[in-house]
Design a protein that fits this description.
This protein has 312 residues and is an alpha/beta fold. The chain has 10 helices and 13 strands.
Protein backbone atom coordinates (compact mmCIF):
# COMPACT_ATOMS: atom_id res chain seq x y z
CA UNK A 1 0.00 0.00 0.00
CA UNK A 2 1.25 3.46 -0.86
CA UNK A 3 -0.10 7.00 -1.15
CA UNK A 4 -0.22 9.00 -4.37
CA UNK A 5 -1.40 12.47 -5.29
CA UNK A 6 -4.72 11.77 -6.96
CA UNK A 7 -5.71 15.36 -7.68
CA UNK A 8 -4.81 19.01 -7.22
CA UNK A 9 -7.08 22.01 -6.69
CA UNK A 10 -6.29 25.72 -6.46
CA UNK A 11 -7.79 29.11 -5.76
CA UNK A 12 -6.17 32.19 -7.31
CA UNK A 13 -7.62 35.69 -6.74
CA UNK A 14 -8.61 37.69 -9.79
CA UNK A 15 -6.98 40.95 -8.70
CA UNK A 16 -3.42 41.26 -10.05
CA UNK A 17 -0.90 43.59 -8.42
CA UNK A 18 2.02 44.28 -10.77
CA UNK A 19 5.42 45.67 -9.91
CA UNK A 20 4.40 48.89 -11.62
CA UNK A 21 1.39 49.08 -9.30
CA UNK A 22 3.74 48.63 -6.33
CA UNK A 23 5.83 51.59 -7.46
CA UNK A 24 2.86 53.74 -6.41
CA UNK A 25 2.62 52.18 -2.95
CA UNK A 26 6.20 51.76 -1.75
CA UNK A 27 9.71 53.04 -2.53
CA UNK A 28 10.63 50.52 -5.21
CA UNK A 29 10.75 49.96 -8.97
CA UNK A 30 9.75 47.21 -11.35
CA UNK A 31 13.42 46.78 -12.32
CA UNK A 32 14.51 46.46 -8.67
CA UNK A 33 11.88 43.82 -7.86
CA UNK A 34 12.35 41.84 -11.07
CA UNK A 35 16.13 41.70 -10.87
CA UNK A 36 16.20 40.61 -7.22
CA UNK A 37 13.21 38.30 -7.02
CA UNK A 38 12.10 37.36 -10.54
CA UNK A 39 8.56 38.40 -9.58
CA UNK A 40 6.58 40.52 -12.07
CA UNK A 41 3.13 40.30 -10.46
CA UNK A 42 1.15 38.65 -7.71
CA UNK A 43 -2.55 38.13 -6.89
CA UNK A 44 -4.04 40.02 -3.95
CA UNK A 45 -7.39 39.64 -2.17
CA UNK A 46 -8.84 43.10 -1.66
CA UNK A 47 -12.26 42.07 -0.34
CA UNK A 48 -11.93 42.13 3.46
CA UNK A 49 -14.89 39.76 3.83
CA UNK A 50 -12.97 36.90 2.17
CA UNK A 51 -11.27 34.72 4.78
CA UNK A 52 -8.40 32.22 4.62
CA UNK A 53 -10.91 29.41 5.15
CA UNK A 54 -12.91 30.62 2.14
CA UNK A 55 -10.04 30.25 -0.28
CA UNK A 56 -8.90 27.02 1.37
CA UNK A 57 -12.41 25.65 0.88
CA UNK A 58 -12.44 26.62 -2.80
CA UNK A 59 -9.16 24.79 -3.46
CA UNK A 60 -10.31 21.78 -1.43
CA UNK A 61 -13.56 21.49 -3.36
CA UNK A 62 -11.75 21.47 -6.69
CA UNK A 63 -9.32 18.78 -5.50
CA UNK A 64 -12.21 16.58 -4.33
CA UNK A 65 -14.14 17.11 -7.56
CA UNK A 66 -11.10 16.31 -9.69
CA UNK A 67 -10.48 13.16 -7.66
CA UNK A 68 -14.01 11.99 -8.44
CA UNK A 69 -14.88 11.14 -4.85
CA UNK A 70 -17.51 12.37 -2.43
CA UNK A 71 -16.53 14.64 0.47
CA UNK A 72 -17.76 11.94 2.86
CA UNK A 73 -14.97 9.66 1.58
CA UNK A 74 -12.25 12.00 2.84
CA UNK A 75 -10.78 10.44 5.99
CA UNK A 76 -8.69 13.40 7.09
CA UNK A 77 -7.71 16.99 6.40
CA UNK A 78 -4.29 18.49 7.12
CA UNK A 79 -4.02 22.24 6.65
CA UNK A 80 -1.16 24.69 6.76
CA UNK A 81 -1.10 28.48 6.75
CA UNK A 82 0.69 31.48 8.24
CA UNK A 83 -2.32 33.76 7.79
CA UNK A 84 -4.96 32.11 9.96
CA UNK A 85 -8.19 33.96 10.59
CA UNK A 86 -8.48 32.32 14.03
CA UNK A 87 -6.11 30.69 16.47
CA UNK A 88 -8.71 27.94 16.70
CA UNK A 89 -10.80 26.10 15.54
CA UNK A 90 -8.19 24.78 13.15
CA UNK A 91 -8.32 25.87 9.53
CA UNK A 92 -8.75 22.17 8.68
CA UNK A 93 -11.91 22.06 10.81
CA UNK A 94 -13.35 25.09 9.04
CA UNK A 95 -12.65 23.49 5.65
CA UNK A 96 -14.21 20.18 6.77
CA UNK A 97 -17.37 22.01 7.77
CA UNK A 98 -17.71 23.95 4.53
CA UNK A 99 -16.81 21.09 2.19
CA UNK A 100 -18.89 18.51 4.03
CA UNK A 101 -16.13 16.14 5.12
CA UNK A 102 -18.20 14.72 7.95
CA UNK A 103 -16.03 11.61 8.44
CA UNK A 104 -12.63 13.32 8.46
CA UNK A 105 -10.19 14.10 11.23
CA UNK A 106 -8.90 17.67 10.93
CA UNK A 107 -5.64 19.20 12.10
CA UNK A 108 -3.33 22.10 11.27
CA UNK A 109 0.45 22.08 11.11
CA UNK A 110 2.65 25.15 11.58
CA UNK A 111 5.56 24.96 9.18
CA UNK A 112 4.83 28.12 7.12
CA UNK A 113 6.18 27.73 3.58
CA UNK A 114 7.37 24.17 4.32
CA UNK A 115 3.88 22.90 5.17
CA UNK A 116 3.56 20.68 2.08
CA UNK A 117 6.51 18.30 2.62
CA UNK A 118 5.47 17.86 6.25
CA UNK A 119 1.79 17.28 5.44
CA UNK A 120 2.54 14.94 2.54
CA UNK A 121 4.76 12.80 4.75
CA UNK A 122 2.18 12.63 7.55
CA UNK A 123 -0.61 11.73 5.11
CA UNK A 124 1.54 9.11 3.38
CA UNK A 125 2.43 7.34 6.62
CA UNK A 126 -1.22 7.29 7.72
CA UNK A 127 -2.33 5.85 4.40
CA UNK A 128 0.43 3.23 4.36
CA UNK A 129 -0.50 2.15 7.88
CA UNK A 130 -4.14 1.67 6.89
CA UNK A 131 -5.49 4.49 9.07
CA UNK A 132 -6.89 6.33 6.04
CA UNK A 133 -7.59 5.92 2.34
CA UNK A 134 -8.05 9.55 1.32
CA UNK A 135 -6.42 12.55 2.99
CA UNK A 136 -6.86 16.13 1.85
CA UNK A 137 -3.95 18.54 2.29
CA UNK A 138 -4.63 22.27 2.06
CA UNK A 139 -2.31 25.27 2.03
CA UNK A 140 -4.01 28.67 2.04
CA UNK A 141 -2.54 32.13 2.42
CA UNK A 142 -3.71 35.72 2.43
CA UNK A 143 -0.17 37.03 2.78
CA UNK A 144 -1.24 40.57 1.87
CA UNK A 145 -2.72 40.88 5.38
CA UNK A 146 0.46 39.96 7.26
CA UNK A 147 3.09 42.00 5.40
CA UNK A 148 4.07 45.60 6.12
CA UNK A 149 3.20 47.52 2.97
CA UNK A 150 5.81 50.14 3.82
CA UNK A 151 8.61 47.54 3.92
CA UNK A 152 9.81 46.96 0.37
CA UNK A 153 12.03 44.08 1.46
CA UNK A 154 9.01 41.89 2.23
CA UNK A 155 5.80 43.30 0.75
CA UNK A 156 6.99 42.86 -2.85
CA UNK A 157 7.61 39.14 -2.34
CA UNK A 158 4.26 37.68 -1.35
CA UNK A 159 0.95 36.88 -3.01
CA UNK A 160 -2.39 35.36 -2.01
CA UNK A 161 -3.57 31.89 -3.10
CA UNK A 162 -4.69 28.47 -1.92
CA UNK A 163 -3.86 24.97 -3.08
CA UNK A 164 -5.03 21.47 -2.17
CA UNK A 165 -3.75 17.94 -2.77
CA UNK A 166 -5.86 14.80 -2.42
CA UNK A 167 -3.69 11.84 -1.44
CA UNK A 168 -5.21 8.39 -1.89
CA UNK A 169 -4.22 4.79 -1.31
CA UNK A 170 -2.89 2.74 -4.22
CA UNK A 171 -1.52 -0.74 -4.85
CA UNK A 172 0.20 0.48 -8.03
CA UNK A 173 3.92 1.11 -8.34
CA UNK A 174 3.63 4.87 -7.89
CA UNK A 175 3.20 7.57 -5.27
CA UNK A 176 5.37 8.97 -2.50
CA UNK A 177 8.65 7.03 -2.44
CA UNK A 178 10.54 8.88 0.29
CA UNK A 179 10.43 11.98 2.45
CA UNK A 180 12.90 13.90 4.60
CA UNK A 181 11.88 16.53 7.15
CA UNK A 182 14.25 18.95 8.87
CA UNK A 183 14.08 21.84 11.34
CA UNK A 184 16.42 24.18 13.20
CA UNK A 185 14.72 26.17 15.94
CA UNK A 186 17.95 28.06 16.60
CA UNK A 187 17.30 29.97 13.36
CA UNK A 188 13.71 30.90 14.20
CA UNK A 189 14.38 34.64 14.40
CA UNK A 190 15.42 34.98 10.75
CA UNK A 191 11.81 34.48 9.61
CA UNK A 192 8.81 34.87 11.90
CA UNK A 193 5.38 36.38 12.50
CA UNK A 194 3.96 37.47 15.84
CA UNK A 195 5.48 38.26 19.20
CA UNK A 196 6.98 41.72 18.84
CA UNK A 197 5.45 42.31 15.39
CA UNK A 198 2.03 41.95 13.77
CA UNK A 199 3.81 41.78 10.40
CA UNK A 200 6.04 39.11 8.90
CA UNK A 201 9.73 39.75 9.67
CA UNK A 202 12.58 38.32 7.62
CA UNK A 203 16.36 38.51 7.47
CA UNK A 204 16.55 38.05 3.72
CA UNK A 205 20.28 37.35 3.46
CA UNK A 206 20.20 34.73 6.20
CA UNK A 207 17.12 33.04 4.74
CA UNK A 208 18.69 32.96 1.27
CA UNK A 209 21.93 31.38 2.46
CA UNK A 210 20.25 28.71 4.57
CA UNK A 211 17.53 27.94 2.01
CA UNK A 212 19.95 27.38 -0.86
CA UNK A 213 22.25 25.14 1.18
CA UNK A 214 19.58 23.07 2.89
CA UNK A 215 17.11 22.67 0.01
CA UNK A 216 19.83 21.26 -2.22
CA UNK A 217 21.06 18.95 0.54
CA UNK A 218 17.63 17.64 1.56
CA UNK A 219 16.68 16.96 -2.07
CA UNK A 220 19.82 14.90 -2.64
CA UNK A 221 19.36 13.07 0.67
CA UNK A 222 15.77 12.12 -0.13
CA UNK A 223 16.66 10.85 -3.60
CA UNK A 224 19.48 8.76 -2.14
CA UNK A 225 17.03 7.06 0.24
CA UNK A 226 15.46 5.35 -2.78
CA UNK A 227 18.69 4.94 -4.78
CA UNK A 228 18.10 7.77 -7.23
CA UNK A 229 20.35 10.60 -8.37
CA UNK A 230 19.45 14.16 -9.30
CA UNK A 231 19.94 13.22 -12.95
CA UNK A 232 17.06 10.73 -12.61
CA UNK A 233 14.56 13.51 -11.85
CA UNK A 234 12.03 14.41 -14.52
CA UNK A 235 10.72 17.47 -12.68
CA UNK A 236 11.89 19.49 -9.68
CA UNK A 237 9.13 21.50 -7.99
CA UNK A 238 10.61 23.81 -5.34
CA UNK A 239 8.78 26.22 -3.09
CA UNK A 240 8.39 29.40 -5.12
CA UNK A 241 10.14 31.86 -2.79
CA UNK A 242 12.08 33.89 -5.33
CA UNK A 243 13.95 33.20 -8.54
CA UNK A 244 17.41 33.63 -7.04
CA UNK A 245 16.82 30.88 -4.48
CA UNK A 246 15.27 28.57 -7.08
CA UNK A 247 18.07 29.08 -9.60
CA UNK A 248 20.78 28.74 -6.94
CA UNK A 249 19.32 25.49 -5.64
CA UNK A 250 19.03 24.19 -9.20
CA UNK A 251 22.67 25.09 -9.87
CA UNK A 252 23.83 23.35 -6.68
CA UNK A 253 21.91 20.23 -7.65
CA UNK A 254 23.17 20.39 -11.23
CA UNK A 255 19.67 19.97 -12.59
CA UNK A 256 18.82 21.19 -16.09
CA UNK A 257 16.76 24.43 -16.00
CA UNK A 258 14.04 22.91 -18.17
CA UNK A 259 13.39 20.34 -15.41
CA UNK A 260 12.66 23.03 -12.81
CA UNK A 261 9.07 24.23 -12.39
CA UNK A 262 8.90 28.01 -11.99
CA UNK A 263 5.86 30.25 -11.72
CA UNK A 264 7.01 32.69 -9.03
CA UNK A 265 7.14 35.41 -11.69
CA UNK A 266 3.32 35.44 -11.90
CA UNK A 267 2.26 34.65 -8.33
CA UNK A 268 5.04 35.69 -5.99
CA UNK A 269 5.65 33.69 -2.83
CA UNK A 270 2.32 32.12 -1.84
CA UNK A 271 3.87 30.22 1.08
CA UNK A 272 2.07 26.92 1.82
CA UNK A 273 0.07 27.22 -1.43
CA UNK A 274 3.08 27.49 -3.73
CA UNK A 275 3.80 23.79 -4.33
CA UNK A 276 0.16 22.83 -5.07
CA UNK A 277 -0.10 25.84 -7.38
CA UNK A 278 3.11 24.83 -9.19
CA UNK A 279 1.91 21.21 -9.52
CA UNK A 280 -1.45 22.38 -10.84
CA UNK A 281 0.20 24.45 -13.57
CA UNK A 282 2.67 21.68 -14.41
CA UNK A 283 -0.27 19.34 -14.97
CA UNK A 284 -2.16 21.91 -17.04
CA UNK A 285 0.93 22.56 -19.19
CA UNK A 286 1.60 18.85 -19.76
CA UNK A 287 4.93 18.99 -17.92
CA UNK A 288 3.82 16.44 -15.33
CA UNK A 289 2.80 12.99 -16.55
CA UNK A 290 2.28 9.52 -15.04
CA UNK A 291 5.51 7.69 -14.35
CA UNK A 292 7.64 10.80 -13.93
CA UNK A 293 10.05 11.05 -11.00
CA UNK A 294 9.34 14.30 -9.14
CA UNK A 295 10.91 16.04 -6.14
CA UNK A 296 8.98 18.59 -4.06
CA UNK A 297 11.18 20.71 -1.78
CA UNK A 298 10.26 23.59 0.50
CA UNK A 299 11.76 25.84 3.16
CA UNK A 300 9.86 27.92 5.72
CA UNK A 301 9.72 29.63 9.07
CA UNK A 302 10.81 27.64 12.08
CA UNK A 303 13.18 27.18 10.43
CA UNK A 304 11.64 24.13 8.74
CA UNK A 305 12.37 22.41 5.46
CA UNK A 306 11.79 19.12 3.70
CA UNK A 307 11.46 17.10 0.51
CA UNK A 308 9.19 14.43 -0.94
CA UNK A 309 10.27 12.24 -3.85
CA UNK A 310 7.29 10.96 -5.82
CA UNK A 311 6.67 8.62 -8.73
CA UNK A 312 3.78 10.47 -10.37
Amino acid sequence: MNAFIKSVGVYVPKNILTNVDLEKRVDTTDAWISSRTGIRERQIIEDASIKTSDIATAAAREAIERAGIDASEVDGIIAGSMSYERAFPALACLVAKEVGCTNAFAVDITAACAAMPYAINIATLMIRSGQAKNILIVGAEICSRIVDWSDRATCVLFGDAAGALLLSATEENRGVLASTLKADGRQGDILYLGGDSKFLKMDGAAVFKLAVTELAAVTKQTLEKVDYKVSDLDLFVPHQANIRIIESVGARLGIAPEKVMINVDRYGNTSSASIPLALYEALEEGRLKPGMLVALSAFGGGITWGCNVIRW
